[in-house]
Amino acid sequence: MRDSGGDQRREDVLAHQIETRDEAFTPYRLPFPIDAMPEIVLENIAGDDERMWVPQTEHVSMRPLCLSVSGGYWVNLLRVRRSGILTRHRHPGPVHAFVLKGRWRYLEHSWVAEEGSYAFEAPGETHTLIVPEDVAEMITLFHVTGALIYCDPDGRQTGYDDVFTKIDMCRRHFESIGLGGDYVKQFIR
Ligand SMILES: [Fe+2]
User: Fold this and answer.
1) Ligand 1 center to 164 CA (angstroms)
2) What's the pLDDT tens digit per position in 90-135?
3) Is residue 35 in some structural domain?
4) Rg (alpha carbons) of the chain, rounded to whole number
5) What residue numbers bound the domain in which 180 lies?
6) What is residue 2's predicted lDDT score, i.e. its pLDDT?
7) What CATH number should be reported for the domain holding residue 138?
8) Domains in the chain: how many in total?
9) How far apart, in Å, are the Cα atoms of 173 and each of 86, 93, 99, 102, 144?
10) Is-above-0.85 flag for pTM?
């Protein structure tokens, strides 16, 4: 005798699986919050478009990715060539680093940030970044909140950078290469 109840249950299970799968692949239908800011999507960020690299010193450049004026942080690629050095500075906020290429270390720590490494640097950290002589180029993604407070070896402040000085730096660079100062706006949120 045919078990019609069993057939019905199998059909119900199948219908439920199809419905669940269809729902899983259905995009969110509602509008995003009216105050939400648009995403930033940048292709080939470590590529060879030299115009995107904003010179800081002779051997140090930064490429802006996200310059957050509302969050007080910035995300950028830092590129250091020919055993460059990044001036000693204190961080009042946290830093996240992901090494994309090359290797570097801080004068104040024994560890070395190798290609593929991630580092969290806690607020209160003061350090001096150097790239060893055998590394021709290093590129690291840094997410920096707050500021870099430049100082002498005894902590006396000599200057600072924050998201606003970074934006000014980028604006001047894009202006000087003919892209126009407003080119920086695509990175600002
Ligand atoms: Fe730093």
Assistant:
1) 17
2) 999 999 999 999 999 999 999 999 999 999 999 999 999 999 999 9
3) no
4) 24
5) 50-187
6) 55
7) 2.60.120.10
8) 1
9) 19, 26, 25, 25, 21
10) yes
